[in-house]
Write a structure and sequence with these properties.
The protein has 279 residues and is an all-alpha fold. It has ten helices and no strands. Helix 2 runs parallel beside helix 4, helix 6 packs parallel to helix 8 and helix 8 packs across helix 10.
Length: 279
């Protein structure tokens, strides 16, 4: 199959989206909030021997052993989400990659437990990717059945991001200048308070940007899935209105992008007979 084949393009786009959203979740979850001993253990396992051919089942087993000492619902959610990331973050070699069903199983399991919003969004996205990437080998009817199930997962993750205030555009990050000032300076208290407010504003913008990336990535998954034949933008609108109740404008905006994607897909496979031949 060549690049023009929508099955190849769909898989590539989904994988790229997953990599982008994963990078943001990794950076925000590692830097935001209070780290716990479990977080440290999971990070150590996940990043051990990262670039030298790790034994993923061994890392999976090491994570699962942590449940003996960390068995609250929230802790179990972190553990299962980490295993899903271990299997997904290296990318997939083919539509038969054995990591795909592992990712799906652990993302689904993680979502049975309480998760922070960013991790939950990532689990929905990883789950969608793991069931969508094999679709490069599907026939139209089989792809359509998979898509109808996948879009519900995608929209559930998108709703979480929207409910948490995910903006439509990335926020600029306020500057936080360094202070070199003596406590005896007459304006010391005022300047420290100004810096505190700037730090708080920057942290808020970073948090909003992490949500923005999840909103963007999940929206792009919707567009990618429905820009491929068999075309069915009305099915997307129907599912979107059900899952994203109260976000009709978002559904409409995504539907417009899907229609653009469909037009592009049709132009590749049914070119204008009056156009110049491609070289």
């Amino acid at each position: 199959m060549k690049w023009g084949d929508p099955r190849i393009r769909c898989s590539f786009v989904l994988a790229a989206i997953g990599a982008i959203s994963l990078l943001v979740v990794c950076s925000t979850t590692s830097s935001g909030g209070q780290s716990t001993p479990l977080d440290a253990d999971l990070a150590r396992i996940r990043h051990s021997d990262r670039w030298r051919g790790v034994d993923l089942p061994e890392l999976e087993a090491r994570c699962l052993k942590l449940i003996a000492d960390h068995n609250s619902p929230r802790e179990k959610g972190k553990i299962h989400a980490t295993i899903a990331l271990i299997y997904s973050e290296g990318g997939y070699k083919s539509s038969e990659d054995p990591r795909l069903p592992k990712t799906a199983a652990y993302a689904r399991k993680a979502l049975e437990y309480p998760l922070d919003v960013l991790t939950a969004c990532q689990m929905y996205g990883s789950w969608v990717d793991s069931v969508s990437i094999p679709s490069r080998k599907y026939e139209r009817e089989q792809f359509a059945r998979m898509r109808q199930n996948a879009i519900v997962l995608c929209l559930k993750g998108l709703k979480l991001a929207l409910d948490s205030g995910a903006p439509k555009e990335r926020r600029p990050l306020p500057d936080v200048p360094r202070l070199h000032i003596s406590p005896e300076h007459p304006q010391y208290s005022q300047m420290m308070e100004d810096r505190r407010q700037r730090v708080a504003a920057r942290e808020k913008a970073e948090s909003e940007n992490a949500l923005y990336v999840q909103r963007w990535a999940l929206s792009r998954r919707c567009i990618t899935l429905y820009s491929r034949a068999p075309y069915d933008v009305e099915q997307f609108r129907s599912e979107g209105r059900k899952v994203l109740a109260g976000y009709d404008r978002v559904v409409a905006e995504i539907a417009v992008e899907i229609e653009k994607g469909i037009a592009f897909d049709k132009s590749i496979h049914s070119p204008d007979p009056n156009s110049l031949p491609r070289r």
